[in-house]
Amino acid sequence: MKIENPESKKDSRIIYLDLLRIICTFSVVILHTSGYAWSILPYTNPAWSYVNFYDGFSRFSVPIFIMISGVFMLSDKKNLDIKNLFYKKILRLVKLFLVYSSLYAIVINIIYSDTFNSFSFIKQILVGHYHLWYLYAIIGLYIITPLLKGITKNNYLTKYFLVTAFIFEILFGTISSIVKTVNLTVFFSKSYLYFVKGFTIYYVLGYFVFNSRINKKNIYILYILGIVFTAFTIAGTKWYSIYTMENNDIFYSFLSVNVFFQSLSIFVFFKEIISKIKFTSFWENLIKALSKYSLGIYLIHDFFLILFLQFNINCLSFNPLFSIPLLSIVIFALSYFSIFLLSNRFL
Q1: For residue 301, what pLDDT is reported?
Q2: Residue 300 sits in which domain range?
Q3: Contact predicate 320/37, CB 8 Å
């Protein structure tokens, strides 16, 4: 079973998207490496601020993963046969989920459980390890891709979809999570406007931005919004935790306004600036090699986090300002070489 990214073929690689995919993969590793300390340290601990910085800064990773998938899957150049969609792409992701979910369930039971319960074990496999939710999300997006392609063929409908999704998912969801007395999400429960909910906005947004020309004024506005909202994610999380007197991740949501603009601005920056860089053949081949196994790195990296924890190695082993990036680099490298060997030698 090849554990490679399913969206693009070898002969249709876009280097700046490959590089962006690598950065997002590494950001996920940072996210999960710092997440251990974020949950056990009190917000009053000085080290928590370093953890919050890395955790808050890395929030763009999953949204941009989905945007990149949208670029390829919703492309006009991609002839989408529903039979092939299910048998070649969705079924492959289901197999990956079952394999990795089973492996994580086995490891977790060996390490943390004194007794084996078959019902609990099967439930663990079906639910999946905490980060495998991403495969559920991608499978869901793949299933509705033929419907979304009907929208993205029309530029006006695409804009209408994005505006509607932004208002009713991103904006209303953020307001409702901050102002507890104003529950705007109740609108969905009464109107059943579920088609524009969830990660579909990032899926369609990736395709739309990739195929759109943005004027310089709007580009600079997006850059400013990205910087402001990234700072807000970090500072806002600190402030809100102090306000609520507990570690509070309300601004960490991938579907919050702040993470939305952070993700959009980074995607636009790579499209407008990084895409113009002429990489040497060495760097281009390296980027392709790392990007090729980014999905596998995502799937396998938590095995190393679990392993390190068993030896009391984590981001609190020394100053998190340095431990988080260093440990993340080690885990990323181990994950890459493991997936490389699995894909090319044993599977």
Answers
A1: 97
A2: 10-346
A3: yes
d(CA 74, CA 206): 9
In a domain, 83, yes or no: yes
Q: Is 3 inside any structural domain?
A: no
pLDDT band at 56 (very low <50, low <70, confident <90, very high): very high
On whether residue 282 sits in a domain, the answer given is: yes
The answer to whether the CB of 136 falls within 8 A of the CB of 128 is yes
Closest by Cα among 256, 237, 261, 230 to 177 = 256
d(CA 180, CA 240): 13
- pTM here is 0.92
Decide: 101 and 132 in contact? Cβ < 8 Å: yes
- Give the number of other CB atoms < 10 A from CB of residue 201: 25
- Answer whether residue 1 is part of any domain: no
Half-sphere exposure of 211 (CA within 13 A, CB side): 19
Other C-beta atoms closer than 10 Å to the C-beta of 144 total 12
Cα–Cα–Cα angle for 41, 302, 340, nearest 5°? 150
| pLDDT above 50: residue 347 | no
Give CA–CA dist 47/242, Å, rounded. 15
Question: What is the number of structural domains in the chain?
Answer: 1
Closest CA to 289 of 1, 19, 11, 100: 19
